[in-house]
Amino acid sequence: MTNQAIFNLLGIAARARKVISGEELVVREIRNGNAKIVLLANDASKNSSKKIQDKCTYYNVEYHVIGDRYDLGHATGKEARVALAITDQGFASKLSSLLNEK
């Protein structure tokens, strides 16, 4: 149930244009300080995973590993996505509370 709520909220955030997807774009948003929370697919390559996790740690951005690339893509209405960055504080707070209670 919690995963479904997370994916539903991701869909709403995507329709509000508060989601950045794609590895390079997510890394850029983390560097610029716009990413409030980052979601990473559990089937991301080791290289992509390490790069995003290291950036999140360095820039102090919360990140979570959830679902696979098709789950993240489907939730945002796109093809497979390995990484998503939420740029809105409200959506990020709600996602954080849902992810941390899980």
Quick overview:
The chain has 102 residues and is an alpha+beta fold. 57% of the residues lie in helices and 15% in strands.
Walk me through this protein's architecture.
- With 102 residues, the protein is α+β, with helices and mostly antiparallel strands.
- The chain has 5 helices and 4 strands.
- The protein has helices spanning 2-15, 23-32, 46-58, 69-76, 89-101; strands at residues 19-21, 37-40, 62-65, 83-86.
- The chain has a 4-stranded mixed β-sheet, with helices on both faces.
- Strand 2 (37-40), helix 3 (46-58) and strand 3 (62-65) form a beta-alpha-beta unit.
- Helix 1 packs across helix 4 and helix 2 packs parallel to helix 3 (46-58).
- The protein is globular, with a radius of gyration of 12 Å.
- The mean pLDDT is 90.
Task: List descriptors.
102 residues
> Which percent range describes the beta-strand content?
5-15%
Largest sheet: 4 strands, mixed
Overall number of strands = 4
- Tally the helices: what do you get? 5
Structural class: alpha+beta
Low-pLDDT ranges? none
What is the average of the pLDDT values? 90
H and E string: HEHEHEHEH
Strand order of the largest sheet: 1-4-2-3
Helix content: 55-70%
Rg calculated over all Cα atoms: 12 Å
Q: Looking at the structure, what is the overall shape?
A: globular
Head-to-tail CA distance between termini: 10 Å
